[in-house]
Structures are given as structure tokens and as C-alpha cells.
């Protein structure tokens, strides 16, 4: 039996967003963030040591050339874990979400890879340490080590040893996420490049770190108290504020499509009619609805009237 490591991790959606790095090499964020993981959507990875040669990277059953961006980034991350005994790896990774569709498959990808490394090398590290390692691959991956809600601490130290995520303990069966798919094509500007341009050129960004940390506190508290209204309102405001900084970047970064705005209007209309539903958006055109399980029919019907399908996910379903 040849040795191998297995890892699987869910995608996560930030309720209070990470946008901007204070250290590009260590992947340290300018602000903390908080997320919810989506069970059933994510990445499964099988990792095997190779005695010689280059990494072999297989994504959804297809071997990638070494010059493909995805493979290059993965190999760069694996550089941290090579040794004389294990100079290269075979990585077989399967995503149950479309790559780069704004559903953060890089987050579940690096979290699953770190779990596979832990399994292969028998480290048995605590989740918070694995979170710190996943952060090197992709910032938001630090949050995908956990089911349910996770809080990624900004940290203060220059070496980043205090910048990792941990679980926020709140079992909330009514909490529901709705996925509104506008477009699942590869995004035009990736988050790594996008946030860098924002930090460098956006005047509005100056107010972001303070707002983001304040929203993070409010949302974490609302999660503990299961105060849905406060959580939803703050998360939607936080996402729109992040997108305002993207739009005010030069050259401008606009992830929205006409269908994204149409979907926002359906959400606002539902709220006017008394249904408590909110949305958040990441570096892509798709909306993620923040809602309660009891409102699934109302939300499904309102979107169906516009010919749009919503997929519901209950992160705390038994
Ligand atoms: C808008 O984690 O993808 O989804 O650290 O450079 O890999 P890198 O960026 P990434 O950025 C995520 C940005 C976001 C907000 C969030 O998930 O918090």
C-alpha cells in the first residue's frame, strides 16, 4: 500500500468580508472576517508523495499543465512542505463547485489540501494550526477548516502567528443560505489581484478597515445571540461597502452584471413586503441570500416569477 493523505473541506461565504492584505507573502489580512461554511459544497483531495520529478496535479479528473495558473499556485504552496524524502506530490482534487465562479473553491481547495498533508504526514495538528497553514494558500481558506460559523482573526504580529480562524460556536437550524447563480464563468479579475489594486488606488478604501472590524464585531455578536435581523442587515451593508471600494478602484473592478442588480431588487422588494431576507456577494456576479428556513417558499416563488432558480442550503440541518 503506497502512502496517501485524504482531505475534504467545505466552501465558505464571508458574512463580514476580507478585502486587502497587510502582507502579501504571509497572506495577512488588513481586517478580520467571519464566515459560514456550506456543507455538501467543497473539495475532496487525495495527496501522494512522488520520489522524483514535478508535481502532478489533477483537477476534476483532468491533469493540468505545469504552466496553468491553478497548478503554479498549488506547486508554490507545496514548496513549503517538500523534503528530500518527498520532493514532489501527486494531487488529485475534485470540486463540487465550479472553479472561480465566486463560490470560493480556492478556499475549500487549500483547506482540503492542508488536511490531506496533515493526514499524509501524520501531524495531527489542531484545526487552528491547520487554518494558519491554509492561509498561506488562500486567505479565505483559513475559514474552511470549520463547519458552521468561523472567525478569522486579523492578528497583530508581523509573523502572522496570531492570524488564524476558529469556530464560532452557534448551532442555528433556522439559518439558511440561498444561492442565486447569475454566471458561473471564470471571473475577470481574481481576488488576489483585485484586492491589491483596491488597496493601492482606491481612496474610499481608507474607511474600509475600521468599518470591517466594526461589522465583524457586530456580526459575531449577532451569531452568538442568533439575532437574525442584525446579522443580515450588517452583512448586506458590509458586502455593498466592499463592492463600493472595488468600483472606486482604478481601473475599476465591477463584478456585477445586470442580473445581479435585478436579483438585489427582488431581495429589497421581498423585504418591503415583510420577508426578512438579505444578500451578500463576493468577487463575482452571484448573490448569496442570507435568510431563515421558514421563508424558503416565499423566496423561491419571488425569484421564480423572474425566471431565476434559488438553491437553498441549511448549514445546520441534522
Ligand atoms: C471577496 O481568499 O480568494 O471572497 O487570499 O488572495 O487567495 P487570497 O484571496 P481570497 O479572497 C476572498 C475575497 C472575498 C471575501 C472573503 O471571502 O472574505
UniProtKB/TrEMBL annotation:
InterPro entries, per the entry: GHMP_kinase_C_sf, Mev_decarb, Mev_diP_decarb, MVD-like_N, Mvd1_C, Ribosomal_Su5_D2-typ_SF, Ribsml_uS5_D2-typ_fold_subgr
Q: Which domain of life is it from?
A: Bacteria
Q: Write the Enzyme Commission number(s) for this entry.
A: 4.1.1.33
Please state every residue range assigned to the domain named Mvd1 C-terminal: 182-305
**Molecular function (Gene Ontology), one example:** diphosphomevalonate decarboxylase activity
- Diphosphomevalonate decarboxylase-like N-terminal domain location: 9-165
Enzyme class, one word?
lyase
UniProt keyword annotations, A-Z: ATP-binding, Lipid biosynthesis, Lipid metabolism, Lyase, Nucleotide-binding
Q: What NCBIfam families does its record include?
A: mevDPdecarb
What family classification does the UniProt entry report for this protein? Belongs to the diphosphomevalonate decarboxylase family.
Q: What is the protein's name according to its record? A: diphosphomevalonate decarboxylase
Q: What high-level taxonomic lineage is stated for the organism?
A: Bacteria, Pseudomonadati, Pseudomonadota, Gammaproteobacteria, Thiotrichales
Gene assigned in the entry = mvaD
Amino acid at each position: 500500500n503506497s502512502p496517501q493523505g485524504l482531505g475534504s473541506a467545505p466552501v465558505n461565504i464571508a458574512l463580514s468580508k476580507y478585502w486587502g492584505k497587510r502582507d502579501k507573502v504571509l497572506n495577512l489580512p488588513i481586517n478580520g472576517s467571519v464566515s459560514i461554511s456550506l456543507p455538501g459544497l467543497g473539495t475532496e483531495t487525495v495527496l501522494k508523495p512522488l520520489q522524483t520529478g514535478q508535481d502532478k496535479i489533477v483537477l476534476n479528473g483532468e491533469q493540468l499543465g505545469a504552466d496553468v495558473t491553478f497548478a503554479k499556485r498549488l506547486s508554490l504552496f507545496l514548496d513549503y512542505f517538500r523534503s528530500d524524502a518527498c520532493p514532489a506530490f501527486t494531487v488529485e482534487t475534485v470540486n463540487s463547485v465550479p472553479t472561480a465562479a465566486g463560490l470560493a473553491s480556492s478556499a475549500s481547495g487549500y483547506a482540503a489540501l492542508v488536511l490531506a498533508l496533515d493526514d499524509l504526514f501524520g501531524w495531527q495538528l489542531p484545526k487552528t494550526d491547520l487554518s494558519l497553514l491554509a492561509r498561506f494558500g488562500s486567505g479565505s481558506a483559513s475559514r474552511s477548516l470549520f463547519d458552521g460559523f468561523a472567525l478569522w482573526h486579523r492578528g497583530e504580529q508581523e509573523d502572522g502567528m496570531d492570524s488564524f480562524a476558529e469556530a464560532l460556536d452557534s448551532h442555528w437550524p433556522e439559518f439558511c443560505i440561498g444561492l442565486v447563480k447569475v454566471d458561473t464563468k471564470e471571473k475577470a479579475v481574481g481576488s488576489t489581484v483585485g484586492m491589491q489594486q483596491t488597496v493601492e488606488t482606491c481612496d474610499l478604501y481608507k474607511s474600509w478597515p475600521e468599518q470591517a472590524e466594526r461589522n465583524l464585531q457586530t456580526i459575531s455578536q449577532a451569531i452568538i445571540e442568533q439575532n437574525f435581523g442584525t446579522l443580515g442587515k450588517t452583512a448586506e451593508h458590509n458586502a455593498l461597502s466592499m463592492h463600493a471600494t472595488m468600483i472606486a478602484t482604478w481601473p475599476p473592478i465591477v463584478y456585477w452584471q445586470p442580473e445581479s442588480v435585478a436579483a438585489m431588487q427582488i431581495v429589497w422588494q421581498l423585504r418591503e413586503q415583510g420577508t426578512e431576507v438579505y444578500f451578500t456577494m463576493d468577487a463575482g456576479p452571484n448573490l448569496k441570500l442570507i435568510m431563515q428556513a421558514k421563508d424558503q417558499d416565499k423566496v423561491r416563488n419571488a425569484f421564480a416569477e423572474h425566471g431565476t432558480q434559488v438553491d437553498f442550503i441549511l448549514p445546520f440541518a441534522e
